[in-house]
Backbone:
């Protein structure tokens, strides 16, 4: 899906988006006029067209196809896919990940079929009538649920991102990887999740003395285990049963997954089968040998739960080439594990000067926020950056500030400012600036 089309849409618009500040509004109007002029000479401006010149297309001359029981995207959108990779292709091809193609998407909700995947041993084919969830350990009465009994409890719907701790890890390499926004940052996606608040289920079981942690286990053949502080479980954690209105997809944990808004993806245990209340963490594989951040002093930081404030420009970005000078709409997504996004700034000079982008509402906590900015490219080489700030005052760090905290190549929890270099010929590359 090419974003160069956006330039035509801008010209056709008679109204300036209301979110624009007055100075931007004036800028937009004056520039739109001149861009329209440029495009008119190329024969694509709306003003040059007449109704008589427009042909009746083939699809208006015969009935369309009938209804379908379950819809799929247009056949012309086949290229919009989640590219997948397995680091263990010969021994365990189902162990790996696939990525959300952010550069091809708009808005803030990830289509369920494009939600990123991270599987440690593939997707289990779970028969929901045989799946059970056990709550045990330091509780007054251990409880066993199935999908039917769990569905009797009141539910909530919340729009949140899930992001792998390994997302953007390619940017921790010595040289900038050349890939699309999705290839580099695609291990993050947003869904509207509906499920039962975990606090409700834990209160139902009754917490016994000494309860401090909850140890979650998945029903896949990786039997993933992660320890979660009780405070998070009693706050905004949920057992999610629905994703974007329908049952959670198999890839996302059908029939039930643990959702810990804003916390590293790995802890959001899919295919959830056990919650054991304990007085301490399990120190499982995925919280000791993995997902720990090695520091220059040789010590590893364990339990980096909350994900850092982050943003990426999705247009313009790697994979497209600017084919003209003039006005574009720059856009991207920002998110934070700490809460709402309060501000996103854009730099065209590798971080020397900044101006505010427009944030598109509604702004949900621990979710993607779409930002936009009218942006004029004068044909010179520029380095574009976005910097997000959240409601807690956390500021997205520079590359230098982020990497100095860890040993070289530490590739977890990467959230530093992404730089896209636009060359004079309009080509775009990932650079370390
Ligand atoms: N049972 C189980 N839960 C799991 C995993 C897994 O392999 N097995 N992968 C984890 C990791 S590393 C991440 S990043 C998220 C990915 O969630 P998604 O595949 O729905 O995007 O699920 C987590 N939960
Ligand atoms: Mo992950």
Residues:
């Amino acid at each position: 899906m090419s974003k160069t089309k956006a330039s035509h849409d801008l010209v056709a618009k008679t109204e300036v988006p209301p979110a624009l500040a007055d100075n931007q509004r004036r800028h937009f109007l004056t520039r739109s006029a001149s861009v329209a002029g440029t495009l008119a000479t190329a024969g694509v401006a709306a003003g040059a067209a007449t109704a008589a010149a427009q042909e009746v297309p083939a699809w208006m001359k015969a009935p369309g196809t009938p209804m379908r029981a379950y819809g799929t995207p247009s056949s012309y959108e086949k290229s919009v896919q989640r590219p997948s990779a397995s680091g263990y292709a010969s021994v365990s091809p189902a162990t790996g990940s696939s990525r959300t193609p952010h550069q091809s998407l708009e808005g803030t909700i990830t289509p369920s079929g494009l939600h990123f995947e991270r599987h440690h041993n593939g997707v289990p084919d779970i028969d929901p009538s045989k799946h059970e969830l056990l709550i045990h350990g330091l509780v007054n009465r251990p409880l066993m649920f199935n999908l039917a009994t769990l569905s009797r409890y009141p539910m909530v719907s919340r729009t949140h991102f899930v992001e792998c701790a390994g997302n953007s890890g390619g940017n921790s390499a010595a040289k900038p990887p050349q890939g699309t926004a999705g290839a580099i940052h695609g291990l993050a996606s947003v869904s509207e999740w509906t499920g039962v608040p975990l606090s409700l289920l834990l209160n139902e079981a009754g917490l016994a003395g000494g309860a401090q942690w909850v140890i979650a286990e998945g029903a896949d053949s990786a039997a993933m285990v992660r320890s979660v502080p009780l405070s998070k479980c009693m706050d905004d954690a949920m057992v999610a049963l629905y994703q974007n209105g329908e049952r959670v997809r198999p890839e996302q944990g059908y029939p039930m997954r643990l959702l810990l808004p804003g916390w590293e993806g790995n802890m959001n245990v899919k295919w959830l089968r056990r919650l054991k209340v304990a007085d301490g963490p399990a120190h499982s594989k995925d919280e000791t040998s993995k997902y720990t951040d090695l520091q220059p002093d040789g010590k590893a930081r364990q339990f980096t739960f909350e994900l850092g404030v982050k943003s990426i420009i999705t247009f313009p970005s790697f994979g497209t080439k600017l084919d003209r000078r003039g006005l574009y709409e720059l856009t991207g997504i920002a998110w934070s594990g700490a809460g709402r996004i309060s501000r996103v700034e854009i730099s065209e000079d590798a971080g020397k000067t900044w101006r505010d982008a427009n944030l598109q509402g509604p702004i949900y906590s621990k979710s993607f926020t779409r930002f936009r900015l009218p942006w004029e490219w004068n044909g010179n080489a520029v380095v574009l950056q976005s910097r997000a700030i959240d409601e807690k005052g956390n500021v997205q760090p520079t590359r230098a500030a982020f990497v100095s905290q860890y040993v070289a190549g530490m590739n977890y929890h990467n959230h530093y400012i992404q730089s896209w270099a636009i060359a004079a010929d309009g080509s775009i590359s990932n650079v370390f600036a």
